[in-house]
Specification:
- The complex is a heterodimer of chains A (about 325) and B (about 625).
- Chain A is α/β, with parallel strands linked by helices and about 325 residues long.
- Chain A has two domains: about 200 residues, HUPs (Rossmann fold, 3-Layer(aba) Sandwich); about 80 residues, no CATH class.
- Helices cover about 30% and strands about 15% of the residues of chain A.
- In chain A, α1 crosses α2 and α6 packs antiparallel against α7.
- In chain A, about 50% of the residues are buried.
- Chain B is an alpha/beta fold.
- Chain B folds into four domains: about 210 residues, Rossmann fold, CATH 3.40.50.300; about 80 residues, Translation factors (Elongation Factor Tu (Ef-tu), domain 3), CATH 2.40.30; about 110 residues, Translation factors (Elongation Factor Tu (Ef-tu), domain 3); about 180 residues, 3-Layer(aba) Sandwich (Rossmann fold).
- Helix content of chain B is about 25%, strand content about 30%.
- Chain B has 16 helices and 28 strands.
- In chain B, strands 7, 8, 9, 10, 11, 12, 13 and 14 form an eight-stranded antiparallel beta sheet that branches.
- Classes of the chains: A alpha/beta (about 325), B alpha/beta (about 625).
- The interface between A and B is large, with 74 and 85 residues.
């Protein structure tokens, strides 16, 4: 566990009073991280009260870890009243899968794994037969199958509005029709903190408790709360090679084309997706404080820097979201 | 410890809104290089010479294709002082619902005006909606100052034009800033061209505007969201009430009342996953445990025994309709989601539809269409626990859901009439004298007459005549003139609906005190709405004080011909929007005690008519 600490642009550490000392009404102030935390907790409780069978998408990535941490806070001292779901593409980083299993076991939450490979084997989806094809698009049918099988009416996702411009347009309670589709032009107005949970059987609502958090907020919160994340988020030595001006890690899922040099350097991952389409960045940030400093100074978005899947086209994310992607 | 400031911007690309936001984000390092590279690339592909910063916020394909903003986009940036969330909303009339969505949570509304065009319909719409949604602070950027040669006089003219309009709204903090978003003048850096402007540039203002008092820390309201039960070894029989503090401050040991059930208990502890806290205030999410084992469930509100929300089946509200497929009409059934409670409700009465541009009330309207605003009363199958929106955004708002489509079709801000709003912990102090003792000892008898009618109808003249007749015969009387009150007691009030009602309420309260003291109180006030006149009457009748309503029935043509104060001429010229009789209705009194019409004769004859009425009234 990382020790709690105070850094620039953060709230008080664990145990510190939530209100600032002071006089007058200025006394009743929350730091912006505490305000974000309170809003997320409100969203979790609202879902638990209004839905029958929620689930939480848990990938072992930092956003889903923070989301699960907030869920525990929302229902404490009772346990989290729903299972978590991972869509396993079969291309994940080994370290992240280990973390996923260990972390959920430690927290005592039920983990359901939906495998893309199962859908391929059953002939429900077909893998692209070109070299270098990723399984990014194949996640969607597997996710929708898992939602249908679990009869889930609410699905928590860790998407943040600062990540990507289509996500910037998404509601906190985002309606999905019976085909799991998002219709960006026909979204429900969302006012105050009144969330419309109504849906018919077979339809569901995607819920995004981290909508208003930024990458820097997430890291500050991880630091403040002492939240454990997979080690690949911190700087480590690794064999990498360059592809489309991104650094890719050599793993069982990915090797360079012939003639592309492999070299060892200090890197860390800003996002964690499939090993065959997630790049890493050169970094010396070995702990959470250094990561916060690095993120605060970066001039590239995390997805722009490290995600090949988002470079497909200007509307790449919107199109995948319309089909039912996270 | 940086604070969070949520701001809503509204406007079209033409106003330079996207350029302004782009400038703000870029200069505050809120744009990343890959984002900038991506839109630079797109701009070039389209043959644009300059990078179109609007592409930053237009996240949907249709938006980029059509070059318009359709939906709210959220942008984030931070400075060492604050973290900002911008809800960037489109400006067109057809996207009013998106503007309302963005403004509902905002601390501050940023309105853009193109200095070449001045105040346009869209500007008034933004100002009105921000006011309706109770956004506490408004910043008006008058943009493109470079294109009008930094002309101070034109800036001042636009400013005073909008101030005239804003005076009729419920806006208490409005700041004007002349800027050139394109050149960066007064956005982050102070402008040399605008040397005559002595305020802060936009970013400094956003960093320093005081938002600490925007929350209500007075009236404790804790809507129970979820009941947490736990049976662990440490907590064998735990039951706590989870929720977000809507308003007020709650502490362990506080006596609480559970509405609507009416049971009382005491707060045992206030817990969070990080431990117990000594106090909870908005917007904290906490768990409250009570001393007593009583039934509390989702939808209930914990409050203080002597400070509680209004519990009512009938809810009156200003509603914005947001559905394109249906209209809001009397008799239709909906679901209202208010706080943590969802109830079935029928639209019982549509009182009027409001023309946002001129603030004119159309009482003949039979329905509300997409993006229209009106005043309604809903009849609910279960009671709602409400507060007036101006005192409590959380317990004063609801959304309307169509039970057949499940869509969110409207939003309402609740109006609780002032007379029902007295804080119940203020106890009346009775003096030693009864009213009859007092009147007998003084040899007098108190009461109130309300003179209502159009501006220039002759209300004050008539009331002054009655006052003189009384005083000259040794009977105490005092004229409370609407205009005069606005110079003193009501100097803080503008001309919004809320302020007008408050103006009337105060006049009524003061009159009742004069009457109680044994004088004849004469109120001369336009008082155009039946609801407000009823309010004054109720106030007196509740206390058993004599009250009469005199309708000074002078035609609009005659009033306009007289135009002693030159107000009609200004109203006709569009300088006084919402002027009674011109573009705001005067509801003719249905049951006045006396009508002084055009045939009532000379002033002294009119005075005699009123004195005759008073003979009966005061006895």
């Amino acid at each position: 566990m990382v020790a709690p600490r105070v850094v620039a642009d953060s709230g008080p550490p664990d145990g510190a009073p939530m209100a600032a000392a002071g006089t007058g009404t200025g006394h009743y102030r929350l730091s912006h991280l505490r305000a974000l935390e309170a809003q997320s907790i409100h969203i979790f409780r609202e879902v638990a009260a209004e839905f029958e069978r929620p689930t939480l998408l848990f990938s072992g990535g930092k956003d889903s870890i923070v989301m699960l941490h907030l869920a525990r806070k929302a229902f404490w001292p009772a346990p989290v009243p729903f299972p978590v779901l991972h869509v396993d593409t079969g291309r994940n980083f080994e370290e992240v899968l280990e973390f996923r299993d260990r972390h959920t076991a430690e927290l005592g939450v039920r983990l359901v794994v939906a495998r893309v490979q199962d859908d391929i084997d059953a002939g429900r989806t077909v893998e692209d037969n070109v070299p270098g094809a990723t399984r990014n698009r194949l996640q969607t049918p597997t996710l929708l199958r898992a939602i249908a099988e679990g009869r889930h009416d609410a699905v928590f996702g860790g998407a943040r509005r600062d990540e990507e411009k289509a996500r910037a347009k998404e509601r906190i309670f985002s309606f999905r029709d019976e085909f799991g589709q998002w219709d960006p032009k026909n979204q429900r107005p969302e006012l105050w903190n009144l969330y419309n949970a109504r849906h018919n059987k077979g339809e569901h609502i995607r819920v995004f408790p981290l909508s208003n958090w930024t990458e820097l907020d997430i890291w500050n919160y991880i630091g403040n709360e002492g939240i454990d994340v997979p080690q690949i988020y911190y700087a480590h030595r690794r064999e990498v090679f360059e592809r489309d001006s991104m650094l890719m890690a050599v793993t069982e899922h990915l090797a360079p084309e012939a003639g592309v040099p492999v070299f060892e350097t200090m890197v860390r991952f800003r996002t964690v997706g499939d090993a065959d389409c997630t790049g890493c960045v050169e970094s010396m940030a070995e702990n959470v404080d250094l990561v916060i400093t690095e993120v605060a100074g970066t001039r590239l978005t995390e997805r722009g820097a490290t995600r090949a899947d988002d470079r497909i086209s200007e509307a790449g994310m919107e199109d995948r979201k319309r089909e039912g992607y996270f | 410890m940086p604070e969070l400031l949520r701001l809503a911007t509204a406007g079209s690309v033409d106003d330079g809104k996207s350029t302004l936001i782009g400038r703000l984000l870029y200069d505050a390092k809120g744009i990343f290089e890959d984002q900038l590279e991506s839109i630079r690339h797109t701009s070039e592909q389209r043959g644009g010479a300059e990078t179109d910063l609007a592409l930053l916020t237009d996240g949907l394909r249709a938006e980029r294709e059509q070059g318009i903003t359709i939906d709210v986009a959220y942008r984030y940036f931070a400075t060492p002082k604050r973290k900002f969330i911008i809800a960037d909303t489109p400006g067109h009339t057809e996207y009013t619902r998106n503007m309302v969505t963005g403004a509902s949570n905002a601390h501050l509304a940023l309105i853009l005006i193109d200095a070449r065009k001045g105040v346009i319909e869209q500007t008034r719409r933004h100002a009105f909606l921000s006011s309706m949604l109770g956004v506490p602070h408004m910043v008006v950027c008058i943009n493109k100052m470079d294109l009008i040669e930094w002309d101070q006089e034109r800036y001042e003219r636009i400013k005073s034009e909008l101030m005239e309009f804003a005076a009729r709204l419920n806006v208490h903090d409005i700041t004007f800033i002349p800027v050139s978003a394109l050149l960066g003048d007064n956005v982050v850096q102070r402008s040399e061209h605008l040397w005559w402007y002595d305020g802060s540039p936009l970013l400094s203002h956003l960093e320093s505007v005081y938002i600490g008092s925007d929350e209500n820390f007075i009236d404790p309201r804790f809507p129970v969201q979820y009941v947490i039960r736990s049976q662990t070894p440490e907590n064998p029989d735990f039951r706590g009430y989870a929720g977000t503090v809507a308003s007020g401050v709650l502490r362990p040991g506080d006596d609480v009342l559970v509405t609507p059930t009416g049971t009382t208990s005491r707060i045992a502890s206030i817990m969070t996953a990080d431990g117990e806290v000594a106090e909870a205030f908005p917007p904290m999410s906490v768990v409250i445990t009570l001393d007593d084992d009583i039934a509390v469930s989702r939808g209930d509100i914990l409050c203080r025994p002597n400070n509680r929300p209004t519990v009512s089946h009938d809810v009156e509200a200003t509603v914005c309709w947001m559905d394109e497929r249906s209209s809001l009409a009397e008799g239709r059934s909906y679901l209202l989601k208010h706080s943590t409670r969802t109830v079935r409700a029928m639209a019982q009465t549509l009182h009027y539809r409001l023309d946002i541009n001129g603030l004119h009330r159309d009482e003949t309207a039979s329905k509300l269409e997409l993006n229209e605003v009106g005043r309604l009363t809903f009849r609910c199958t279960e009671p709602l626990l409400v507060d007036d929106y101006t005192t409590n955004r959380s317990t004063g708002s609801f959304i309307i859901i169509d039970p057949t489509t499940n869509a969110t079709v409207g939003a309402g801000v609740i109006r609780v009439l002032a007379t029902t709003h007295a804080s119940p912990n203020v106890v009346r102090h009775d003096g030693r004298l009864s009213r009859l003792d007092r009147f007998a000892a003084l040899g007098t008898s108190g009461g109130t007459v309300l003179f209502t009618g159009l501006s220039g109808a002759g209300k004050s003249t008539l009331a002054a005549g009655v006052e003189e007749a009384f005083v000259r015969t040794g009977r105490p009387a005092f004229l409370l003139d609407g205009d005069n009150l606005r110079h003193g007691l009501n100097a803080d009030l503008g001309f919004s609906d809320q302020d007008r009602t408050e103006n009337v309420r105060r006049a009524g309260e003061v009159a009742a005190m004069f009457a109680e003291a044994g004088a004849l109180a004469l109120i001369a006030l336009i008082c155009p709405f039946d609801e407000d006149r009823r309010l004054i009457r109720t106030l007196h009748e509740q206390d058993g004080l004599p009250f009469a309503e005199v309708f000074v029935d002078t035609s609009i043509e005659e009033c306009e011909r007289r135009d002693a104060k030159g107000l009609y001429a200004r109203a006709r010229a569009g300088q006084l929007p919402g002027f009674t009789g011109i573009d705001s209705a005067y509801e003719v009194p249905a049951h006045p005690d006396l009508v002084v019409g055009p045939d009532a004769g000379s002033l002294s004859e009119q005075v005699s008519l009123v004195l005759g009425l008073l003979d009966n009234l005061l006895r």
